User: Which sequence fits this backbone?
């Protein structure tokens, strides 16, 4: 961080989050908090059923993410053992 810190509200994140979320999800790189594996999302192990998906690390099998679809159609993303998700 630079010496100059600007305090703004969360609306300031709209642009960068829209850019991040428009990326091809299979190419996002996900880092495991447990073993440090840093693999493309397309290479993780996914267990899924009607309620959602459990995303596991291919290296150590720890749960990285849980993705759930609500009855109302919303989507919830729970960060479990995921240290980072990166685009680019
Ligand atoms: Zn791992």
Assistant:
């Amino acid at each position: 961080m630079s010496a100059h810190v600007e305090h703004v509200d969360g609306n300031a994140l709209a642009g960068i989050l829209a850019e991040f979320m428009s990326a091809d999800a299979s190419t996002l790189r996900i880092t495991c908090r447990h073993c440090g594996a840093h693999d493309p999302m397309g290479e993780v192990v996914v267990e899924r059923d009607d309620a959602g998906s459990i995303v596991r690390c291919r290296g150590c099998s720890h749960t990285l993410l849980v993705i759930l679809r609500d009855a109302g159609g919303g989507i919830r993303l729970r960060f479990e053992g995921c240290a980072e998700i990166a685009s680019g």
In short: The pocket of zinc ion is lined by residues 32, 34-35, 37, 57, 59-60, 62 (CB under 6 Å). Residues 14-21 form the longest helix (8 residues). The CA atoms of residues 18 and 57 lie 26 Å apart.
